[in-house]
Design a protein that fits this description.
3 domains, three-stranded antiparallel β-sheet, mainly alpha, hpI Integrase, Chain A, single chain
């Protein structure tokens, strides 16, 4: 390997031609031939490795106040090239890296390049995060819903805040600054929404607040992408997303629509929690209203309320999955959406694929529904659409998941009951099971939760509110004197 040379230069120009003299300037040396101590600056040049057939190239650096500095950097560059250990392809790669360094920028640290060489990571990587993330997403084989989530995180958060940073230079501080900016923007949106000025409120119309749970998912997307950059693509060797701390993204606790909560909601329109549960009396009122006003979907809503199915599981239930003799349903598939397009797919985990025992009331509801569906089929005749699905429209067509949700929301609004989401019927089922004496393990298996803790953390807190309502009811009854019993 050529050792290169160290010399002096200046910016003086020839008086006649105006061209720079560089190393030919007579002021650079004293009459004795020694270098002038103050005129000019030091530089070095070094022949860089090249691929076969490629032209020669040199590393030239002109920025040193004294010879020792120039020599030290030349030795540093030689040490980097020596990491190739006789491998010409790797030497060319390190040469590419040196050739790309800007004149005023320092050379890469030897230890960093040594670690990358040892790990098999390309030494000359300079890909921006904003270029890498879309390429990474394109190459992944994942569910459509997961892809949309990753794409949203990349487009709306990761690339706008971090896309300009080279992969290898991304640090924990960069990511923490991104989340701080996201949190600040969410605060600004909340402040603007509560403003008395209509123009201020209008300025954030359509903008969404990014909560703690979403920030955890954004970090998870980045963490996965960077892990693949390390393991699959061998582009980097450190994942800064692994070391970023965020506020807790705990699941919201389920709350009961107690009398006090309903009164506050009617006065302010505010819900105590994103996850709300009806009391058994309120649930009964809803089923009565649904049966009277939307008999076509009443049985599906009743199944979710009593047995805790997810929306996609109920819509995807097939005729062959129902066993009335054994009073059970076997959940093996679901119908969800990709954008607005319905998609049928298997359940995502072993715990989700399960057998759910049916109570007598639900068995009776199924028999009633099947009789009604048979009448639909007779009326439709040859136009009946055969899908094999349990819950269908009067012509046999499958339900669109969004339609099922929209009709539920419409029923809740018109019934005058305090609002809950369709998914909250599942929470109601779990709450009533726990209140009636079922243990957490039984509820976990009925709902198809993956862990015992998920079930306990989500539902245990609602029991106190139900018990409080029961105590109020008992106290009210005790005030009414009955034969053979004293008033309280």
């Amino acid at each position: 390997m050529a050792e290169g040379s160290v010399t002096k230069f200046c910016t003086c120009r020839d008086k006649d031609t105006g061209k720079r003299l560089n190393g030919r300037c007579p002021k650079l040396r004293r009459p004795s031939g020694a270098w002038h101590p103050t005129h000019g600056r030091w530089s070095y040049q070094l022949e860089l490795p090249r691929a076969v057939g490629e032209p020669r190239r040199q590393l030239r650096r002109y920025r040193f106040d004294n010879r020792d500095e120039a020599v030290a950097e030349r030795e540093h560059a030689l040490a980097l090239l020596a990491l190739a250990g006789g491998n010409n392809d790797l030497a060319v790669e390190i040469g590419d890296l040196l050739h790309q360094v800007k004149p005023t920028a320092p050379l890469p640290e030897r230890d960093m390049i040594a670690r990358r060489v040892k790990a098999g990571v390309p030494a000359s990587t300079a890909k921006l995060l904003g270029d890498y993330l879309p390429e990474w997403l394109t190459g992944r084989q994942i569910e459509p819903g997961t892809r949309r989530s990753y794409d949203s995180h990349i487009r709306n958060h990761l690339n706008p805040h971090l896309g300009h940073i080279p992969l290898e230079k991304l640090r924990v501080g960069h990511i923490q600054a991104m989340f701080a900016a996201i949190a600040d923007r969410s605060t600004a949106i909340e402040v603007a929404r509560s403003s008395d000025d209509p123009a201020v409120r209008a300025s954030v119309k359509g903008e969404r607040i990014t909560g703690a749970a979403t920030m955890h998912r954004i970090r998870a997307t980045l963490r996965k992408a960077l892990n693949d950059a390390i393991g699959k693509h061998r582009l980097i060797e450190f994942n800064p997303a692994m070391h970023v701390e965020l506020p807790s993204g705990k699941r919201p606790k389920a709350r009961v629509w107690t009398a006090a909560a309903v009164k506050h909601w009617r006065a302010t329109g505010e819900r105590p929690s994103p996850v709300m549960v009806w009391t058994p009396e309120q649930a009964g009122q809803f089923l009565d209203y649904a049966e009277a006003h939307d008999l076509v979907l009443y049985h599906l809503y009743a199944l979710i309320l009593h047995r805790g199915l997810r929306r996609g599981e109920a819509i995807g239930l097939r005729d062959i999955d129902l066993d009335l003799d054994d009073a059970a349903i076997h959940l093996v598939q679901q119908i969800t959406t990709d954008g607005y397009t319905p998609v049928t797919k298997s359940l995502k985990s072993d715990s989700s694929e399960r057998t759910v025992t049916l109570d007598d009331s639900t068995v009776a509801n199924f028999r009633s529904y099947l009789a009604m569906r048979a009448r639909w089929q007779l009326v439709s005749g040859h136009t009946w659409v055969t899908t094999g699905l349990m819950f269908v429209q009067p012509g046999g067509q499958p339900w669109h998941p969004d339609t099922v949700t929209k009709r539920f929301d419409d029923l809740v609004e018109k019934s005058g009951l305090p609002p809950i989401r369709l998914h909250d019927l599942r929470h109601c089922a779990a709450t009533y099971l726990k209140a009636s004496g079922a243990d957490i393990k039984d509820i976990q298996e009925t709902l198809g939760h993956s862990t015992h803790n998920l079930t306990a953390d989500t539902y245990t807190s609602v029991l106190h509110e139900l018990e409080t309502e029961r105590e109020k009811a008992n106290a009210a009854v005790a005030l009414v004197p009955r034969s053979g019993r004293k008033a309280a």
